[in-house]
């Protein structure tokens, strides 16, 4: 029900002014009430330490070391070429640009919800002219009248006694902060992908270099064996075995070149523009790419991993939505009003007696809605439960990412040491097999097998070294490294230790 008061005269403004003042005061006091449940951070759904003895020792040793978030990517990735690629990707990558645009959208949505807490004022100017026929005028003759009106009007404004509008604003704020944290997660993932793509390219460059050296060596051997076959010094079988070994190396070189071209295309997509990375005939210096990193403790992930931070903001938003759903069970009080001047004559529009005002409070409460409000509350609670599960899943996924990266770092390092020793043994085997063949003590098939195995081990060693470096990249990303500052311009949420008041509600 709405009651509307209209008054014209010299003393008009005092009454609406008092009414508006009382309404604003009531709205201010109402803003202190929230029906949202007290927020409590879910307990850590993972062990207190990572499942790795070496990692646990490193946790204790690195407890006072810098966390991954305190180490910027320029400090962690020391290779100049890699730094340039990451910088270009952060500027041109389209996925990151979309994430930034989503942040702008969420910021605007938060601005809309925040504006709902304040009245909307507007300037109004109306001109109405009407003709009433004689049989309806009451005076027996037709009448034509005009009405001019100018004023300031207030659109329907809800007094937030139960915190519904405030809860919606809080939910929008948390969604905005979650979107910004998701932007940070996209940034960190992009850095990880660019670093791994660069390492893959350098891995292929080194493997191509080894393949080309092998191709040149075997081609030379083939020419020598061909001359020896032409003079009858060796059999045709020996010649075909040498040729087979040469052709296999040529095929491997072509396969690696194709794979490198594909990796370059993938890196260009990540960077967002063309990249100039010519083949380099040098071995990758493992120590010059990045430094080592202490894992820290699992609890650090809650503040360092942007995807976990985003999940917690989403949980806070779902919590606020419960408050908005609970407020629907209480009366909704709104205000409308205007103040200005009105007259039937344009010349009298701005005179004292023409002042006019209106003030209309309204209250509404659904009596029967077939369980709509109860269902809305159940939906909000279910979404909160889903947000809790998503948060716990994000924490568990982060824990696994770190544990996997630590395990890979430990065992790949051992594999690299083993393969280095294997490469040395295979090289010696190939040398001895060649000597035995030259002295007629063994068939060339023994040399063939030794050289083929040597090339396989050399290729495997390069791939394993690259995998070890990639494990360090993965650990950096899993720990939430990068120190990518939040771009959010909204106030931080209240700490969990100071929950809002929660009256008894449905």
How does this structure look, described?
The chain has helices spanning 14-30, 53-61, 73-76, 80-92, 94-115, 134-137, 164-230, 236-271, 301-304, 306-327, 372-438, 444-478; strands at residues 5-8, 121-132, 143-159, 332-343, 355-364. It is an alpha+beta fold and 506 residues long. Helix 4 (80-92) packs across helix 7 and helix 7 runs antiparallel to helix 12 (444-478). Strands 1-5-4-3-2 form a five-stranded antiparallel β-sheet. The radius of gyration is 38 Å and the shape is elongated. The chain has twelve helices and five strands. It has two domains: 1-30 and 122-157 and 332-364, Outer membrane efflux proteins (OEP), CATH 2.20.200; 47-117 and 160-330 and 379-478, Outer membrane efflux proteins (OEP), CATH 1.20.1600.
Order of helices and strands: EHHHHHEHEHHHHEEHH
CATH architecture type of the largest domain? Up-down Bundle
Characterize the main sheet: 5 strands, antiparallel
Give the distance, in angstroms, between the N- and C-terminal Cα atoms: 25 Å
Approximate helicity band? 55-70%
Order of strands across the biggest sheet?
Answer: 1-5-4-3-2
| Total beta strands | 5
Count of the domains: 2
Structural class: alpha+beta
Q: What is the fourth-level CATH superfamily of the largest domain? A: Outer membrane efflux proteins (OEP)
What is the oligomeric state here?
Answer: single chain
* Low-confidence runs of at least 5 consecutive residues: 1-13, 60-65, 491-506
Question: What global shape is seen?
Answer: elongated
> What is the CATH T-level topology of the largest domain?
Outer membrane efflux proteins (OEP)
Strand content: 5-15%
Instruction: Output the number of helix runs.
Output: 12
Q: Output the radius of gyration.
A: 38 Å
